[in-house]
Amino acid sequence: MASTKLDVLEEIKLDHDNVRDLWSRYQTATTRDEKAVIANTLIREMAVHGDAEEISVYNDYAKLGIASTADHNKEEHHEIKKLVYEADSASTKSADYDAVLGKAVNAFITHAGEEERDQFPTIKAKLTPEENDRLARDFLKARKMVPTRPHPAAPQTGGVAQKAVGAFGSVHDKIIETLGSREFVDLKYQHTEKF
């Protein structure tokens, strides 16, 4: 029995769609407590997505002949991480919190749109079904290894240093989330668990 081939671009877009959905939910939330839980989830999803791409998918861009695209994306990720860090560090009770979070989310959504519109067609054309499946699986594994909070000062090389710092950061973030009793909302879109 052959296993189902995964599509890395679908897995990446799923993250983008979750952030778009969460932002919509945040904007229609009516209480500060409801907004805080959605904000926690937004921050976690943006942090995980960026680091997971960097330690998995972007490492293959050179083989695909688009190494400069990976560099460009990492630069944008760095700016997004700084904005997400600001949102994570700010009080959800502050009067300007919506604007602080909105700046981070809008930067993420702008970057996601650029990837989908300008990069996905090129990547799709260059990947074999086997490479596509391997990259999707690498991305899904990376999502489970990376920190769940933004760490803009951490390495963004996509290599061993980022993986090592990410592993430490992931454990640290779990402790912080547990001690801080952070709550999260369910995501609308789910990655496959069978890979």
Give a description of the structure.
The chain has about 200 residues and is an all-alpha fold. It has one domain (about 10-180): Four Helix Bundle (Hemerythrin (Met), subunit A) (Up-down Bundle), CATH 1.20.120. Helix content is about 70%, strand content about 0%. The protein is globular. The protein starts with 7 loop residues before the first helix and ends in a 16-residue tail after the last helix. The model is unreliable at about 160-170 (pLDDT under 50).
Question: How would you summarize the topology of this molecule?
Answer:
Elements: H1 8-28, H2 32-55, H3 67-89, H4 97-126, H5 129-145, H6 160-179
Please give the largest β-sheet.
none
Basic shape: globular
Secondary-structure element series: HHHHHH
Which radius of gyration do the C-alpha atoms yield? 16 Å
CATH topology description: Four Helix Bundle (Hemerythrin (Met), subunit A)
CATH class bucket: Mainly Alpha
- How far apart the termini lie comes to 15 Å
Count of helical stretches: 6
Question: What is the averaged pLDDT score?
Answer: 87
In terms of structural class, how would the helical and strand content be classed?
mainly alpha
CATH architecture: Up-down Bundle
Count of all domains: 1
